[in-house]
Predict the structure.
Amino acid sequence: MTLWHIVGLSATLIVIVALSLFSGRKVKSAADFASGGGKTGSLIIAGAIMGTLVGGSSTVGTAQLAYEYGLSAWWFTLGGGIACLILALGFVKPFRKTGASTLVGIVSHEYGQTSGMLASILSSIGTFINIISQMLAATAVIAVVLPKLGTVPALLCAAALMALYVIVGGVQSAGAVGVLKLVLLYVAMIGSGIIVLILTKGWNPLVADIHALEAAAVESGKAVNYFSLFARGFGKDAGAGLSLVFGVLTTQTYAQAVLAGKSDSASRKGALISAIMIPPIGIGGILVGLYMRVNFPPETGLIAKNALTQFILDYMPAPLAGVVLATLLIAVVGTGAGLSLGISTIIGNDIVKKVSHKIDDPKKNLLFSRVCIIVVLLVACSMSTGSLGDVILNFAFMSMGLRGAVVFVPLLGALWFPGRIDKKFIIASIIISPLCVLIFGVTGWVTFDSLFVGIAASFVICLLGLLTGKNKNSLKA
């Protein structure tokens, strides 16, 4: 890191923090904090979705996977785009029609407080695990910027940035910063892809280099098709894309963004903008990963997860490299911040308000939401250190599976089969399905994502509930 790297990085962080503070200046209540007062436009909605969905996996993770497997690394951003398209076309209107402020609230309204409380706790645990993984990813970027900074200070820096991202303005801050972050990410990732094509003097020479790499891999007995979307196997790569769909449709943060819209049309447009804008970001990361694999194979000592940051430091002008490194840091930070906002909303609306009236006052509720975010991030810090952090990181890939298994099928039942599924089966589904995800994920009894075992179990249980008879406790029956 040179002085110019630091200048570019610092200037970018200052602008992002200032925008977060500015966008939150009109937030006076928890409703403004969580939903923008229901007056949010499509661009801010898109910023809130992409600000959380486009994180470390879409940038650093995509380059890392492309370094190892090529085009199949596109599934995170491609799957994210498909998920936003389904959200826009199939779920925006049903979500908003319920009048609920959370996904769990929709489930609770249909199947009772017990179902809602269980779903709140279990989905929050799944989201919390993902916050920890984002925090650990943020420290990896911070280590490039400040290599002598210890783990604990790096974690505290990551937590502070996550808090600043949303704690003042909530959805408004997340959306406004998300828009800026998207612009910077396009400069970073698409710009990196263009630099790769300049360095290789075009697409065809890069393709020739990759084919030579494939031929060498065949000779060594480690064949990889770098131009296949299913290089890791159809089950694994297609499963990764479907996991994104389930995860987006069952994560509070994305629902919160569309619920904040001033109209169904604004929310749908925000989700559609996200669907269009997310997939191209992955292309730049793939080009970088392939270029670094050709020119810096593992034998040179390059670690796959450092492919993108090393490329930025080596091939970008120093001030621009500083801006891009700051953008990558904010990409990870934004995901953690958005998830912590989602947990705060669930805890406040679906847990605390169900058992106490102490935060019914709008100002107290706003204070609670902000304090809750800080507490969640501090607890995540404490659980990210040492060997415990490594253990949690091993479970992070199941985070989305846990959320999907808990909420997805019960949510479908509440939206499209109101009054027709016995709530006892929903409670059984909420408990058994995430257990299936954990058991099959830990034991490795299946070669595909354990999320699908959980979803299948949930579907069977809820289908039995549908066949059994009406849910007499439904408010819609």
Remarks:
- The chain has one domain: 3-374.
